[in-house]
Amino acid sequence: MTSASSNPFYGSGSTSPSGASGYQRMALDNLIRRELKVSDPNDPQQIANALLERFKEDPRARAINQEARGLPFLQALQISSPVAQASTSTDTELRQAKDDIDRDLQELLTNSLLKDVTPEIEGWAQAVRSAIQEGTLAARFALDPRQRDKGFAIRRQLGDYARMARLVGALSPTAASIYRSFAQSLDEASAVILVLMGESLSNVGFNGGRFLLQVPYTELQVRRDAAIYALRNLVGTTQEAYGPNDWPRGLDGYRLLLRELEAQGYGDLRALLQENELARVMDELIVRADHGRVQGLRALGVTARIDIDRFRRLVLIGQQMAVDEQNQPSPWSPPLTAFLEALLLFAEAFDSSGGFRLVRVARPPILYYGLFGNRVADAGEDRLINLIVQRNRLAEALDCLADCECSGNAALCQIVLDKLLYDTDRSIDLYCYGQQPFGIPEQRASAYGLLIEVFAHPAAGEAGPKLGDCLAQRDPELARRIRDSLHAIAGPDGLRPPAFHTEFAHPQRRAAFQGLLHQELCQQRNREEQWRSMVETMAPNCHGFETVYDGIFEVIDRAIGRLGALAPRACPPTDILLPPHPDVSLGRSSLI
Q: Which of 381, 523, 556, 590 is the residue whose CA sits 20 to 30 A from 562?
């Protein structure tokens, strides 16, 4: 075993200060331990064996092993003929969806009835083709959290264009079928992207797992370094002298934190205030992640919470020290707060991220038993599958409804029903993100169920379009199909499970639940207002834009009114509030 001075990386000619040189040596040792998985970074034999193991697939490493066994250094490589990879069913469906979109766009661009909006449709074509290309590329790497989030964003973008196409088509009687065909093709592409994300998780072996990293693997190292730097700033080892007017906030926080841990009997947490121990724990978690591969993620899913518990307990103790007698935040030591924030930021990277339900979407139910682990689907996953089935049935029924008549009342009813179809798609996205049977994403999705409820079952005296009036003069069988689909989507097996009524009636959680629903409904209202100018540009004013949007807003306002105490509360405008200038604040204080 060699000493630190004999390591060729530790040159004696360095002109850096001794403290900085020590940190450089420690950083290099930690890097070698983490990447090569050796116990002593100064042992050349361990380093050589670790390098051969790390690069064992490299031809040069195999050549070295050949030479060590007394065999020829180089051997002729066997050239195998490449085999073309067979396309999967999803690839075929993706090509079909792209071809359908191209044909529909060509029809929209060449139709003489739409010659006045040709530039706008060309803009649609450019945006849609770019979105599909980016979305399919991101969906194939859904194990990466950023790519998975990008895939959901692209899917929603395509859904927005499909909703706009149906809305413009309902207001354009002569071209309604063309617009609806284009919207159907966009639905195909967005559905394929969702399935591609699930297949990308399943193809790498993520079948029975429920743990996905919150952040990409590369960001774990960044958060680890931030925690180390914050610890150095806290304990005063950054080799920076205090100014003549600077208070030693970091040293004071470090001293009081040590004293608090000792007084509370948390001596095991004091070890995390040593850089070597803190780096070791974080490096072990990063190594266990195995570069974000499936086996590493499944190993982290059953170990990370235990290892991270020490971090969270330390943050909790430190946080209790940063409050005053009235239990109000009082961060008297910025370096201590920065260290606790960096530590909590690293710990939260190992909280499970939503998206594991995508496997259920991509694989048929017959494969769930056995191949997908030893657990059964929870209630949230069952409702997700039911939403997907009922959504498709509703879309088929609405396409049939659109061919019946084009009167003003019929157009308004068609627009509201198409909006409910769009809302169902957004509910499916939220359920794909969710992790609990009725967590925050599922609760947000229930706002769309409330919207369907007020449209299908209005209270006495409520204004606006109603499902009964919309289907009164329609084919009875078609009306029954639409009612059954809406009831299944908004019913107890859909967006409004028994937990919905439990949360709504709970005295402590009711206000927060109502606020969540109110926020989601207001987002819908604001989105409709933002889209109005685009609709007026693309569609003729056959049925009156005021009448159409008044009907949409009345349905949304009725849903907000069902929230009870929050009914008088208006939807806030989209704005960013900034604190007033210090001079203004001082002026106001002087007037009090």
A: 381
Tokens 């009687």, residue located: 173
Residue 87's Cβ-count burial label (10 Å; 0-12, 13-18, 19+) is exposed
Rounded (10°) angle between helices 59-68 and 44-54: 130
Sign of the C-alpha dihedral, residues 170, 174, 179, 181? positive
Section 127-150 average pLDDT: 92
Phi-psi region of 29 (alpha: psi -120 to 50; beta: other; left: phi over 0): alpha
State mean pLDDT over 89-113: 92
- Name the least confident of 195-199, 225-229, 563-567: 563-567
Distance CA 443, CA 434 (A): 10
pLDDT confidence of 13, banded at 50, 70, 90?
very low
Q: How far apart are CA 355 and CA 433, in angstroms?
A: 5
pLDDT band at 568 (very low <50, low <70, confident <90, very high): very low
- Asked whether the beta carbons of 43 and 2 are under 8 A apart, the reply is yes
Query: What does the angle CA 97 – CA 433 – CA 289 come to, to the nearest 5 degrees?
Result: 105
Residue 304 pLDDT exceeds 90? no
What is residue 215's three-state secondary structure?
Answer: coil
214 near 297, Cβ under 8 Å? no
Dist. CA 363–CA 365, nearest whole Å: 7
Could you give the CA distance from residue 592 to residue 587 in angstroms, rounded to a whole number? 9
- Beta-carbon count within 10 A of 329 CB: 9
* 404 vs 247: CA distance, rounded Å: 78
**3-state secondary structure at position 323:** strand
- Write down the mean pLDDT value for the chain: 83
Residues 6+ apart with CB under 8 A from 31: none
pLDDT for position 444: 94
pLDDT above 70 covers a percentage of the chain that reads: 83
Start-end of H helices in 373-475: 379-402, 408-433, 440-456, 467-470
Q: Which residue has the higher pLDDT, 94 or 22?
A: 94
Cα torsion 55, 57, 63, 67 to 10°: value is 80
Please name the residues in contact with 18: beta carbons below 8 A apart, sequence gap of 6 or more: none
- Tell me the HSE value of 147 on the side-chain side, using a 13 A CA sphere: 19
